[in-house]
């Protein structure tokens, strides 16, 4: 795969199951990729530090099955490619959304990132 990206982080909330316009099911999840900054932000109340959060989209059935078994707080690694698209917010403004389309997914031992 050209331009392959890998992201590893803590699962922020349970994965959300969605349906594409063509009827195919897929999952989305958000990973917090900077644990220390996320912890500091919660303690310091937005003192200028932000957690790096990455949205991941999974279409592969095997990866979807594994992601469904993951719970918030699990350490997850994904490899895939980046997809960006523009969308219109509810207030009418336009924004860009960038997501990692995962081709491979692994649940890791939390001790491997400490």
UniProtKB/TrEMBL annotation:
Pfam families: SSB. GO terms for molecular function: single-stranded DNA binding. InterPro entries: NA-bd_OB-fold, Primosome_PriB/ssb. SUPFAM superfamilies: Nucleic acid-binding proteins. The keyword Signal does not apply. Keywords: DNA-binding. It comes from the Bacteria. Gene3D superfamilies: Nucleic acid-binding proteins. Coiled coil: none annotated. This is Single-stranded DNA-binding protein. It comes from Faecalibaculum rodentium.
């Amino acid at each position: 795969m050209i331009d392959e990206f890998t992201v590893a982080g803590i699962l922020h909330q349970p994965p959300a199951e969605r349906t594409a316009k063509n009827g195919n099911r897929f999952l989305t999840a958000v990973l917090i990729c900077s644990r220390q900054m996320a912890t500091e932000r919660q303690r310091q109340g937005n003192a200028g530090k932000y957690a790096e959060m990455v949205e991941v989209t999974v279409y592969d059935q095997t990866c979807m099955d594994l992601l469904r078994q993951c719970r918030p707080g699990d350490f997850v690694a994904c490899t895939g490619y980046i997809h960006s698209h523009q969308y219109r917010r509810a207030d009418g403004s336009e924004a860009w959304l960038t997501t990692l389309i995962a081709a491979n997914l692994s649940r890791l031992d939390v001790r491997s990132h400490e």
